[in-house]
Amino acid sequence: MKDVFARLASDFLSAIVFLVIYLATDNVILATSVAIAGALAQVIYARVKGHKLGYMTYASVALVIVLGTVTLLTNDPRFMLAKPAIAHFAIGAIMLKRGWMLRYMPPMVVETAPEYVTAAGYAWAALMFVLGAGTIAVAATGDLKLWAFYISAVAGGAKALAFAVQYVVFRLVVTSRRRAAARA
């Protein structure tokens, strides 16, 4: 689990750097420039150390460079703020693959309620699209505090709640079906 959080922090390091510097200085040019330089430095450092970088890291760096350049040209932070929406949309698109979630489930769930797992996979995809659209809507306001709240509390909270609901539903369905099978 620690490794997962380390990878997520690495993938979103430039967005975190941008946010911290922008909140501290209220200077879009400085925050964007440091975020772009940090993203490039992160890739260079990893290559020098011989670390293999994942697709998300390269995608994140590319987005930082493209959206950062547009932010620098327009002096408008909303382009950098929209970056998480692109990640949500990409992940949502991947989650549209039928049965993608089956490999992450315990065998008992896969054997007992595979149709629920497939439905949950589509529900997760829908959640990612909704959160991406919300991110764009909030980024369009240009309100950095609202954006930071949305990204951390709303988007993070929605994912945690979805996970909890999914866990409870799977547990109830599996338990119910196993009891019914034992009686039969």
From TrEMBL:
The keyword Cell membrane applies. Signal peptide: none annotated. The keyword NAD does not apply. The chain crosses the membrane at residues 12-41, 53-73, 79-96, 116-141, 147-170. InterPro entries: YciB (IPR006008). Pfam families: IspA. Keywords: Cell membrane, Membrane, Transmembrane, Transmembrane helix. One of its GO terms (cellular component) is plasma membrane. PANTHER family: INNER MEMBRANE-SPANNING PROTEIN YCIB (PTHR36917:SF1), INTRACELLULAR SEPTATION PROTEIN A-RELATED (PTHR36917). This is Septation protein IspZ.
